[in-house]
Amino acid sequence: MSEAMAHHAEADRHPALAHHFEGLPEQKEAAGLGMWLFLAQEVMFFGGLFTCYTIYRNLYPAAFAAGSAHLNWKLGAFNTAVLIGSSLTMAMAVHAAAVGKRRQIVAYLLLTVALGSVFLGVKVVEYADKFHHHLVPGEHFRFEGPLARPAQIYFSLYFAMTGLHALHMIIGIPILLTLAVLAHRGRYSADYHAPVELTGLYWHFVDIVWIFLFPLLYLIPTHAPH
Amino acid sequence: MSERHQSHVVSPLLYLAVFASLMVLTVVTVAASRFDFGPWNTVVALGIAVVKATLVVFFFMHLKWSSRLVRLMAAAAFMWLALLIAGAYSDYLGRGRVNTAVEKRSPTGALLEDR
Prior knowledge:
The complex is a heterodimer.
Chain A: H1 3-12, H2 24-59, H3 61-68, H4 73-98, H5 102-132, H6 148-184, H7 194-218
Helix pairs in contact in A: 2-3, 2-6, 2-7, 3-6, 4-5, 4-7, 5-6, 6-7
Chain B: H1 12-32, H2 41-60, H3 68-94, E1 104-105, E2 111-112
Antiparallel strand pairs in B: 1-2
């Protein structure tokens, strides 16, 4: 390759393409793999809590059922629907990016942020209710009956798991807003929209965590044999 | 440029179908919690959750159209999770059988005196 041709090839490179990749598709493949590796780590991160939950629920099934009865399953179900809806709008944002529709990317990203905020708002109402009824583990925890001690374990897990999940959304929302601003400025096109796709993977993962949290925390049947 | 590098553009109709399925399965989860399947209660709830998660992973997260390397990574994530749970459980289920001197707890969680 002559020097002139090399310069020409250099000028043809997409501004988002890092120098150590041959092309955008290769870069996208590497970025996607890295994101899945990160999510694998996230699975282990939440996996420790899920394992802890499983062990304690098997030790104290009655206390977990009694604790779960204090949650409002209707709010949990509403939030499940909201979060699944936000996954749909996120998928649509990625789709809009893949077909290069800038305005639609922005619209769907903002819709995703709105739904995520509704979810967090409901969570605030739920947490406030737990504080009000002294169901937050610690000094002021109050629970009638002999199951008070293991019920506190249930509520510890409830706050740890939903809190960590909410933290993921609190981190996700500013990322979505940043993407919306950059998309508005025309950063993303059909050729290059890896950040939108990777953030989509993250958002869907957070949705999956909730898909498991909802039945495990809100829907423990009280009629189960103990 | 090889075929697997091509970005897969999925029809929005497919996304809508996946969304509708997830909503129906959420209703099914709530309905199922009203029935008593005895020891299978948790299995039923988790089974529905696994189906929902699979729909999200394959369609929303595009795993259906991802390269084999990415699929391997996704599968490895759940392999590690299975190892974590199996490892922890083999310990908990084995306790008291292998060593009878482990602490005994009442159903209320209070530590019982050694008998």
